[in-house]
Structure formats: structure tokens, C-alpha cells
UniProtKB/TrEMBL annotation:
Gene Ontology terms for molecular function: peroxidase activity
Keywords in alphabetical order: Heme, Heme biosynthesis, Iron, Metal-binding, Oxidoreductase, Peroxidase
Recorded name of the encoding gene: chdC
Name of the protein in its database record: Coproheme decarboxylase
Keyword hit for Oxidoreductase: yes
Similarity annotation: Belongs to the ChdC family. Type 1 subfamily.
UniProt-listed SUPFAM superfamilies: Dimeric alpha+beta barrel (SSF54909)
List of residues binding Fe-coproporphyrin III: 132, 146-150, 173, 186, 224
EC number of this enzyme: 1.3.98.5
Catalysed reactions, as listed in the record: harderoheme III + H2O2 + H(+) = heme b + CO2 + 2 H2O; Fe-coproporphyrin III + 2 H2O2 + 2 H(+) = heme b + 2 CO2 + 4 H2O; Fe-coproporphyrin III + H2O2 + H(+) = harderoheme III + CO2 + 2 H2O
Database matches in InterPro entries: CHDC, ChdC/CLD, Dimeric_a/b-barrel
């Protein structure tokens, strides 16, 4: 084994998952004019994000989040980190933000690991690869997000395995994933150097049961069973402007 078999990764858009909790007490105390103005401001921002969505400009999706961990998640994919910073600040400048708390967020960059490359070809010239590096978020009804690591234990250490060993395990992973074609869309963000875990996994589904099925089935693949370490899971439902207005109507 060579001393360092880091593989080449391909990077696409930078990603920012902005999870917000709503301060409902404060929201209920606000006047109806104030609430209306806050929602109007947020929805006009959402329209700007939708209109800007393109192959070169990035993509945005908004989800409501179940459970106590968050109420909303804004998912932003953009060409530069500067744009992500501007988006965060733009939200924070709205009246709506006065009713939110930002307990959690996640920064990564859309990543393809080159375990399955075609030697001699420029991967970024391949439209299929470009589609995965610069994906338009699918706006399917449900999403889940969780961060994960590959284990660096004394016995099981992903990073001290050879490239061939890792490639073989990733091929099995890819085969499991392919069974979910059309049911699950995954966006893998590499977050080494950016956030607390090594990857942020965002899954989209039409049927929330498929989120459970894929995560469960993958637990049996050696790469997850032996090397996967997982953070908190968050799950939610897609919200467009109408759904958002309904969510905040009192
Ligand atoms: C729709 C499902 C699906 C499919 C088709 C799929 C396929 C593939 C392929 C072909 C490849 C390798 C090349 C590349 O594209 O990077 C990957 C890579 C990766 N995956 Fe994946 N994955 C899926 C889905 C999928 C899920 C559900 C998870 C979470 C794992 C779990 O246990 O909860 C995951 C994780 C990852 C990660 C963290 C990486 C990077 C690993 C690294 O060490 O670099 N992934 N993945």
C-alpha cells in the first residue's frame, strides 16, 4: 500500500443547509400586519431564489422539518461560498428572521468521489457528471439530511485501506443505491474542512418510506455496517409559497 492513497474528488456547487426553529411565542404575539409583512418578505425572497435557479446559477429548496430539531430548512446550492454567505445575511435581514433561531446548519460542497471514473476522460466534460455536480434540487415531497463519517478506528480504519479495497466496497454501495433509481435522489456534500462531519447526505423521496428503506438497506453494505458513523437525522416535507403561508397562518 502506498503511503497516501487519497482519491481524486470532483467538486461542484457549494451547499448550505440552513435549519431554523420558529419562535412561535413571538410569532403569535406579533400583529397580523407584522406577520403578513414578514411572510411577504420571505416569499418574495423565495421567488428570487426560484427565478435564479439555473445550470450556472445554483438551486434552492425549502422544506419544513418534523420533530423538535428544527421547523424549516433552506437548502442552497451555489457556485461560490460568497453567495452562500450573502444568502444567510439576506435571510437574517428579513423581518421573518426575527422570529427564527438558527440552531443548526451544514456547509459542504457537492462531491463525486472518483471510484468509478473513466480514465483519460475529462469528467467535467461529461453531461451526466455535470448534472450530478451542479444538480437542480428535485423538489420531491420529502427530504432527509444527516451528516456522516467513515470510521478511523484502530481496527477498522477506512483511510488506511487500499484504493482497491475501498473501490470494491463503494461499488457494492453504488449497486444498492441503483435499486432506488426514481425513488430516491441523493446529493452527497463533502464537508472535510468545512463542517463537523466528513459528508452531508441529503436524500429526496416521493414516498417517505423509501428514505427508511434505503438507509436501512445500506446499513447491511459493509461500507456502512463497518465504516459508517452517523450524526443526527432530520426529515421533512417540501414547502412551496402556498404551503409556507399556510404553515404560518394563525
Ligand atoms: C440513490 C441512491 C444512491 C446511489 C445510486 C449512490 C451511489 C454512489 C456512488 C456510485 C458513489 C461513488 C462515486 C460517487 O459518486 O461519489 C457514492 C459515494 C458516496 N455515497 Fe452514495 N449512493 C446513494 C445513496 C447514498 C446514501 C443513502 C448514502 C448514506 C450512506 C448510509 O449508509 O446511510 C450515501 C453515502 C455516500 C457517500 C458518503 C459517498 C462518498 C464516499 C467516499 O468515500 O468518497 N449514498 N454513492
Amino acid at each position: 500500500m502506498s503511503a497516501n492513497e487519497a482519491l481524486l474528488t470532483l467538486e461542484g456547487w457549494f451547499t448550505y443547509h440552513d435549519f431554523r426553529k420558529i419562535n412561535w411565542e413571538k410569532w403569535k404575539q406579533a400583529s397580523s400586519e407584522e406577520r403578513q409583512a414578514a411572510i411577504d418578505e420571505l416569499t418574495s425572497l423565495m421567488r428570487v431564489w426560484n427565478d435564479a435557479e439555473s445550470e450556472t446559477g445554483g438551486s434552492t429548496a425549502v422544506y419544513s422539518v418534523l420533530g423538535h430539531k428544527a421547523d424549516l430548512c433552506f437548502i442552497f446550492l451555489r457556485p461560490t461560498m460568497g453567495e452562500l454567505d450573502e444568502l444567510k445575511t439576506a435571510i437574517n435581514k428579513t423581518r421573518f428572521a426575527d422570529y427564527t433561531e438558527t440552531d443548526y446548519s451544514y456547509i459542504s460542497v457537492v462531491e463525486l468521489s472518483n471510484y468509478v471514473n473513466n480514465p483519460g476522460q475529462d469528467p467535467k466534460a461529461n453531461p451526466h457528471v455535470r448534472e450530478r455536480l451542479y444538480p437542480i434540487l428535485p423538489k420531491w415531497d420529502h427530504f432527509c439530511f444527516y451528516p456522516m463519517n467513515k470510521k478511523r478506528g484502530e481496527k477498522d480504519n477506512w483511510y488506511s485501506m487500499t484504493m482497491d479495497e475501498r473501490r470494491e466496497l463503494m461499488q457494492t454501495h453504488g449497486l444498492t443505491g441503483r435499486k432506488y433509481a426514481g425513488k430516491i435522489k441523493q446529493i452527497i456534500g463533502g464537508s472535510v474542512g468545512y463542517d463537523d462531519w466528513e459528508w452531508g447526505v441529503t436524500l429526496f423521496a416521493h414516498d417517505p418510506i423509501e428514505l427508511k428503506h434505503i438507509v436501512y438497506e445500506m446499513r447491511f453494505d459493509e461500507v456502512s455496517a463497518r465504516y459508517g458513523e452517523f450524526g443526527n437525522f432530520l426529515v421533512g416535507n417540501y414547502v412551496n409559497e402556498e404551503a409556507l403561508r399556510k404553515m404560518f397562518a394563525l
